[in-house]
């Protein structure tokens, strides 16, 4: 045989398991309602196919949702014992597991992420969050943050992890005895609406969870509603700052999870093949639509050439394409708007003098795609080293000493996460102490667990989600010594 290549056989997950309706209403007081009649379309970013029409909530719809949440809070949820609330959370967690395949397929269709990620990462962690916070519901007196809920939580989430961000917001809020009004992002509303069906299936009392769909105006109506006691937001730093300004002077409690520009630092004693896997996972996981993505690679000069050659070899094997194909590593960019931002910043990178290399791959003709890309010869002043690209684009810088690595890593307005790759435990500890980042991963990257707090410094926001610390944002701080 002269030709030993073989043809690629796709392994697509069937979409028959999901039942996408032509149109969706708002989920208020335990029912789907029409609202004001305005609607927007949600599309599949891998094909540009319109998936459904979704209601766009206005101020009056948001007000109806907040009133339903207030009623449920006063009459039912805040009066229920923690042990009773836990039963609902456990039930929701079990239904998420039972309907896991359906949730994963729908998430991949509406968001563009590979099925192997929605199936093996997003959905299992979503269920784990509900299980974890169910466990806290009857033990709040041991949290260190008191056990009194705040009331109604207004929650606004982004499109990069639609269901996971929902879980990070709703699970601790309900465990602490709050009720919620949540708005998913306008490009990814469908799994939140399926979650609303799961709330019905779990017999959650009406009004405890309300899901209102819409864009920025709907989000603004939620965060500025006078009867919302707590605002929880994940998204861009720009909108986060606008929200902080909007609630200033009110007694609303606020947590903000914003952007990042994480340094992934590779020392010359690191196991290089493992580090290359970590670099790939750090920036190409979820198409790089990750606030804590390892988007700045800091590599020690003595191994830079070797790391780059292994990295490019590995990148050339990444399979980009159909999100529902079980072999796909990198799926579709979530929207035309995000694709144009990624393209624009990449062009800026070239014009600033950095050298661009993209993995050779055939991109589908429909949908929104961007080949995994790496920039070398990047300096700290370049925009691609400073700004969040939020796509599959890596900027590479080099360093000589640990101090130089720390200085470069911390030279950013953000402070969400960082990675350190080295053989020496003592170096891991000293780096972790010096890096201004909420999460520091050592010899791994992008690992999430419900028991572990997550959050940032500086322009990456404030407040923590996950773990015992994640309860603080949903309780009145009555404990002596609790952080405010
Ligand atoms: P965004 O901040 O514009 O939107 C996030 C959510 O906020 C969406 O639900 C949106 O409808 C809502 N929103 C928009 N304007 C609002 C307002 N004035 N008041 C209240 N809610 C409002 O972010 P995006 O468009 O989803 O993404 C833009 C950038 O944000 C990305 O390029 C990336 O840099 C960053 N981002 C960060 C994260 C993160 O997890 N930290 C997630 C997604 C996006």
TrEMBL record:
Record's keyword terms, sorted: Oxidoreductase
UniProt region (Disordered), positions on chain: 456-484
Residue ranges of domain Aldehyde dehydrogenase in the record: 32-476
Active site residues of this protein: 257
SUPFAM superfamilies in UniProt: ALDH-like
The keyword Oxidoreductase appears for this protein: yes
PROSITE patterns assigned: ALDEHYDE_DEHYDR_GLU
Composition bias type Basic and acidic residues, residue spans: 461-471
Domain of life: Bacteria
InterPro entries: Ald_DH/histidinol_DH, Ald_DH_C, Ald_DH_CS_GLU, Ald_DH_N, Aldehyde_DH_dom
Xref: Pfam families: Aldedh
Annotated family: Belongs to the aldehyde dehydrogenase family.
Protein name: Aldehyde dehydrogenase family protein
């Amino acid at each position: 045989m002269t030709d030993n290549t073989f043809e690629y056989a796709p392994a697509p997950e069937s979409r028959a398991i999901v039942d996408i309706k032509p149109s969706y209403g708002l989920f208020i007081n335990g029912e789907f309602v029409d609202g004001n009649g305005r609607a927007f379309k949600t599309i599949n970013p891998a094909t540009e196919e319109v998936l459904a029409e979704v209601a766009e909530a206005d101020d009056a719809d948001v007000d109806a949702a907040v009133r339903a949440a207030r009623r449920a809070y006063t009459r039912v949820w805040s009066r229920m014992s923690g042990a009773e609330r836990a039963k609902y959370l456990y039930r929701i967690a079990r239904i998420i597991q039972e309907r896991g395949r359906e949730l994963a397929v729908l998430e991949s269709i509406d968001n563009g992420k590979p099925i192997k990620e929605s199936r093996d990462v997003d959905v299992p962690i979503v269920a784990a969050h509900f299980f974890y916070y169910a466990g806290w519901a009857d033990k709040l007196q041991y949290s260190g943050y008191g056990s009194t809920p705040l009331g109604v939580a207004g929650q606004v989430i982004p499109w990069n992890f639609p269901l996971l961000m929902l879980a990070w917001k709703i699970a601790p809020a309900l465990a602490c005895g709050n009720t919620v009004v949540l708005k998913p992002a306008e490009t990814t509303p469908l799994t939140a609406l399926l979650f609303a069906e799961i709330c019905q299936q779990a017999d959650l009392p009406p009004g405890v969870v309300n899901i209102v769909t819409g864009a920025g105006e709907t989000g603004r109506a939620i965060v500025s509603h006078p009867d919302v006691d707590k605002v929880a937001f994940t998204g861009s730093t720009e909108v986060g700052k606008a929200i902080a300004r909007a609630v200033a002077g009110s007694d609303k409690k606020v947590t903000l999870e914003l952007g990042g520009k994480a340094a992934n630092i590779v020392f010359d004693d690191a196991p290089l093949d493992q580090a290359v896997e970590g670099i790939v996972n750090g920036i190409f996981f979820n198409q790089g639509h990750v606030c804590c993505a390892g988007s700045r690679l800091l590599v020690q000069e003595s191994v830079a050439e070797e790391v780059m050659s292994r990295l490019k070899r590995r990148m050339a094997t990444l399979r980009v394409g159909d999100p529902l194909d079980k072999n796909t590593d990198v799926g579709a960019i979530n929207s035309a708007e995000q694709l144009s931002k990624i393209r624009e910043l990449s062009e800026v990178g070239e014009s600033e003098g950095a050298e661009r290399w993209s993995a050779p791959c055939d991109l589908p003709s429909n949908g929104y795609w961007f080949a995994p890309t790496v920039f070398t010869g990047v300096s700290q002043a370049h925009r691609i080293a400073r700004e969040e690209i939020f796509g599959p684009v890596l900027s590479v810088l080099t360093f000589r000493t640990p101090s130089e690595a720390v200085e470069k890593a911390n030279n950013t307005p953000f402070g969400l996460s960082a990675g350190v790759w080295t053989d020496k435990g003592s170096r891991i500890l000293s780096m972790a102490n010096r890096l201004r980042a909420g999460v520091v991963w050592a010899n791994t990257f992008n690992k999430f667990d419900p028991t572990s707090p997550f959050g940032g410094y500086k322009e990456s926001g404030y407040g923590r989600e996950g773990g015992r610390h994640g309860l603080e944002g949903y309780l009145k701080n009555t404990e002596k010594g609790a952080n405010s």
